[in-house]
Design goal:
- The protein is α+β, with helices and mostly antiparallel strands and 111 residues long.
- The strands form 2 sheets. It has a two-stranded antiparallel sheet with strand order 1-2. Strands 3-4 form a two-stranded antiparallel ribbon.
- Strand 3 and strand 4 form a beta hairpin.
- The mean pLDDT is 91.
């Protein structure tokens, strides 16, 4: 695999990590976040595959997403590792392992 591609992908995710953590303390750069996605993109996770469009609605969802993470007590998201695999001469896959940190919500004491 081309080491330049690996470095570019790792740099991309490190910038994503920094931007995500900045959003948790109040600085949400919606345009920078949206610029991380192409006009039409695919996201996949254990729950399925999503085809998305980078538009005004997506930008609104970005803000809502960051607010959701704050509301559940997310304090930071740290990348443990980025492993890049070449799929063919034009495509690569990045497997990113994240570690997340949360604060516990205070519960009321019952008498």
């Amino acid at each position: 695999m081309d080491n330049n591609i690996e470095k570019k992908l790792e740099d991309f995710f490190r910038k994503y990590e920094a931007r995500f953590n900045e959003s948790l303390v109040g600085t949400i750069d919606v345009e920078e976040a949206a610029n991380s996605f192409t006009d039409c993109f695919i996201g996949a996770n254990p729950f399925g595959v999503l085809c998305g469009k980078n538009d005004d609605q997506f930008r609104a969802v970005i803000t809502q997403g960051y607010e959701f993470y704050k509301s559940i007590g997310t304090k930071s998201m740290i990348i443990d590792s980025v492993k890049v695999s070449s799929l063919d001469e034009y495509h690569s896959m990045a497997k990113v392992h994240w570690r997340s940190f949360y604060s516990k919500k205070k519960t009321e004491e019952k008498n």
